[in-house]
Design goal:
The chain is of the alpha+beta class. The chain folds into two domains: 97 residues, Alpha-Beta Plaits, CATH 3.30.70.270; 223 residues, no CATH class. The chain contains twelve helices and eight strands. Helix 10 links the parallel strand 7 and strand 8. Helix 2 packs across helix 3 and helix 6 runs antiparallel to helix 9.
Length: 329
């Protein structure tokens, strides 16, 4: 039922609250928990659910705000005290207590992005996948890096030849559980390119929920043949270093910019429970033909269903997806 309500709330449904009661030592002895349960059953609605979790008595309250749950907690502590039962309570309201907005990193008011508590809570869920995924990233990352070194050397020389400035470009991105990291790419734009153009384009894509097409076709900021580097994904090869460092994965959601994350709705923050990747479910499921909301749903679906089989399937689909993207240009 909790999973059902989480999914419903993430899609814009009503909030809900969980209230946990901790029964302390009391004169009521072994009957303390039973007394509190009887009191709760007299007060709870038919739609509420009473249960236990980690030696706590837990009441699940659908469509209930935190203040309403707090009033129930205060009443229960008072009524229980009259029956010589000592208890305390805490409440978790979703998403009210967890809708902490991400810090405005775009204006450098903070050095880290603080994700919602609900995202941090899912560390326990995703932790079991860390070992196999990290091992695959290290083996695959080192292998691909060695194989691509000749190509990367050629691209480096080419960029230096066609455009003044460094061959590599680094940019702050939002990673695993909202942590910031420096993402590396081959530079495909002029050194003095105005970043506000890209920001305005992303805002429009999100607000109008239209296909996630890039500005490449009419973007004067791109260096000669830069569009080819971007379309083929060659510009992202330096991110293999991010994979080896543990900041990214071979497979995962696209690493977003801070001002993008700032606009996310609470259900979209679940994408941060997986490390960002070089390729991902969105990239092999239509990519630029999908809308912003469709991209978010694919990212969240991937984050909630991590598996080795799924990662292998996405990797095998990546080259055909790139080839199809090149042919459609």
């Amino acid at each position: 039922m909790l999973n059902h309500e989480l999914a419903r709330t993430d899609r814009g449904g009503p909030s809900f609250t969980v209230i946990r009661f901790h029964v302390d030592n009391s004169a009521a002895g072994d009957d303390a928990a039973s007394i509190l349960i009887d009191l709760l059953q007299e007060r709870l609605r038919q739609s509420d659910v009473l249960g236990s979790l980690d030696s706590c008595i837990v009441a699940f309250l659908p469509q209930t705000s935190a203040p309403s749950a707090r009033r129930l907690g205060v009443e229960m502590v008072r009524y229980a005290g009259e029956r010589r039962v000592v208890c305390r309570y805490d409440i978790i309201s979703y998403p009210d207590d967890h809708r902490h907005q991400l810090h405005d990193i775009a204006e450098k008011d903070a050095s880290t992005i603080q994700p919602t508590t609900s995202v941090r809570f899912e560390k326990a869920i995703t932790g079991k996948h860390v070992l196999w995924k990290r091992a695959a990233d290290l083996v695959g990352g080192f292998t691909l890096l060695l194989l691509s070194l000749p190509l990367m050397a050629v691209v480096t020389v080419f960029i230096k030849f066609v455009s003044p400035g460094p061959a590599l470009f680094k940019q702050e991105r939002v990673g695993h559980f909202g942590e910031l990291f420096l993402c590396w790419k081959f530079r495909t734009m002029k050194v003095d390119a105005d970043p506000s153009v890209h920001q305005q384009h992303l805002v429009r894509l999100a607000d109008e929920d239209i296909p996630m097409k890039k500005l490449d076709g009419a973007d004067s900021r791109i260096i000669p043949f830069g569009k080819i580097l971007r379309t083929t994904g060659i510009d992202e090869l330096p991110q293999l270093l991010n994979v080896i460092r543990g900041e990214m994965s071979l497979v995962g959601p696209r690493p977003c910019l801070a001002y993008e994350a700032q606009r996310y709705r609470s259900w979209q923050w679940h994408r941060f429970t997986a490390r960002p990747g070089l390729t991902g479910l969105w990239q092999v499921s239509g990519k630029n033909r999908t809308t912003f909301t469709e991209m978010m749903r694919l990212d969240v679906r991937y984050s909630r269903s991590l598996s080795l089989f799924q990662d292998m399937a996405i990797i095998f689909k990546t080259l055909p997806a790139i080839a199809k993207q090149v042919l459609n240009q």
